[in-house]
Amino acid sequence: MKYIAFFFSLTFSLLVAVGLSINLASLPPLASIFDPFKGFWQNAYSEDRNPEASIFLEGLSQPVEVVFDDNLIPHIFAESEKDLYKVQGYVTAAHRLWQMEFQVLAAEGRLSEIVGEMALPRDREMRRKGLGFGARNKLKYLQEEDPETLAMIQAYADGVNAYIRGLSAARLPIEYKLLDYRPEPWSPYKSLVFLMNMAEILSGDQDFAYTNTRNLFGDSWIENLFPETPADLVPVVGKEQWDFTPEEVIRPDVSYPDSGFYEQVLPGKEPGYGSNNWAVSGDKTASGFPILANDPHLALNLPSLWYAIQLSTPEYTVKGASLPGAVGVISGFNENIAWGITNADRDVKDWYKIKFRDDSRAEYLYNGQWIKSNMQLDTIRVKGRNDFIDTVVYTHYGPVVYDRNFLLEGKPVDFALKWTAHDPSNEQRTFLDLNRAGNYQEYLEAISHFAAPAQNFAFASREGDIAMTIQGKFPLKWPGQGKYLMDGSKSAFEWQGFIPNAHNAREINPEKGFVTSANQHPVSPNYPYYVFSDQYEYYRNRRIHQQLSEGEEISTSDMMQLQLDNYDLHAAETLPYLLDNLDSTWQRGAGGQWVRELEDWDYFADADQAGPALFQSWWQHLQQSLFDSWETNGLPIVYPSKYSLSRLLQDEPLGRWFDDPATTAKETAAHWVNKGFEGMSQEMDTFLSTNDSLTWAGYKNTRLDHLIPNLTPFGKDARVGGGKNIVNASSSDWGPGWRMVVALGPEIKAFGIYPGGQSGNPGSKFYHNMVSKWKNGDYISIDLRARTGDDNVLFTTTFNPD
Questions:
Q1: Is residue 254 part of a domain?
Q2: In angstroms, how far is CA 507 from the centroid of its own chain?
């Protein structure tokens, strides 16, 4: 009854939320929502009520047993991989069907079908970026080159579809009822679209913004404000000498084309998205065996991005975090190895200016010749409206994302996107092979299939090996290539091939006794290939490196403590300078209170502290006031990172970028320090006018929102400490969505947690049952489970051949 009462109290909030998020003409019939037999009342259940003990599943070769533990984590025991993945698809769909389909519809550019024309610009963007184009290329590759992997993805799809076929209107997830549509069949193509979406989320590009910045301020600003290899660089993999002969890259005698300014550009990768992973050698652990840790940082939503699962055949058992829609375990461990992933932040997207012969756009100029374009009509169905027909032009580089028909006035025109994720590749095989891998060589073979997005794969084995590999398909570029917009009419701007997979940076069993990555610069400066990104991290990685360097007799609890580490290295390196350059007049009034609070702060961004909020606000106002003084004419440009700006403030306080051209005075760094403090003081006055006290958790206000943001009753407060550039990384809407620690050895011990629950149904007690543990820094045991034994069993379901 309590679940029915819960839904009754939400009814009107939900109807208002839906009304705000879609047109009134698209509202679902109210009678269907309130229908006592099929409406939202039927979603007021928990998965432990009346579980099915036996399910017939067409196409199984033998029975498959699924044991659900007390957190609703399924442990699937099958006699063959095909049966295993078929049941994985069924079970995942049973808990996360709406999420799976919604994420794919968003990536494929089909949200207009369910929410109307408000989603049309977003749909056009995703289609023009070519997520479906890339997925089709990968599907064709699997059909021709790897039918075995395709068969496993098809088995997963068959399981999802078996669940959909048996889904009654009453048990349809509530989001389908609220948005008035039904699920459609799953397919391998949809799984590949989902993987393309992960590549899109984790692949950044700032070519337009860099071009604007260079045109406004010149090369010297770029060199000083955006150093490609900072002095105190701590790379993912650093070596005194690389053990290969590099491919030759010839710098052509060309210069970047003259270009104007671009007012409207598509948003890039969300700043801060990233992850931590590390593996520690047995020489530094109390057990004498390696320990591996991984905590990916992505959007915090309900349902959670991650879904915990164990997959078992007679040959192997693997457990960890899966992604609903993809086959196998993505971050996890088996009886012999463990692995974890972080984003490697490599520039694998480039933009080329296309010169068409005429308005028909049927031909474009390339090396003095007119090359035929490939014109594709794209039909977008729009709920409650006529279909929208878009024309997308494809060149040999890729789709022309920006053209005369897309975006607003001031946009770029006729720019094609070249992106490694568009190419044929086989990322899904990487995870299938990792799930069954038993040693370092098998790990290397598994990840060799992974092309995009670039990832840092940490590894540890029961044999004692630890390793890190920066894996992806990386273009061969001359220094600086792709940093700015390129001329698509000249072959000199083409990539010169790809870095051989054997030349990707990797290390095994380093003398320091650990490997680690945290989205920092991937390699030491002597790496013989050009490496670039504008979003490398320079604080989390150094803190982790320091802690692991100092650690001895390391335990799993030490690794958990490091994942939860709230030490703000940026504040520790910057705040003393800010305080030293603050005018003494701020000591009077409320400003003095803030100064004393900051002087007493220990640099730990714990939830109940005021210091982190004051420092964050001060820094943001300092940045904003400085950047607002730059004469950008409202153009999108790149701005220095926290790390670079902190160094400039302290090392070059008289730099010309600190002088405000709107005044006759000569401003220095200290001017902006005080301007930032002034803005912070005003913000704190406003904040405290509506809040009883100042705490970091209250100021940062981390939340777990539903994937449809207006469905606020389906979200949950998740106020925690940590922050951007802190090991325990988080903001208001992203953070460590999966924490895992695995201790290798004769008996593997593993722990994990994520902010959510296994169920995607807001009426289930398993919708967010692990949020409190996650907030408190607790973990649950995720040890490998044997088929026999009844400890912590919620219920068992047997899938039988039909």
A1: no
A2: 25
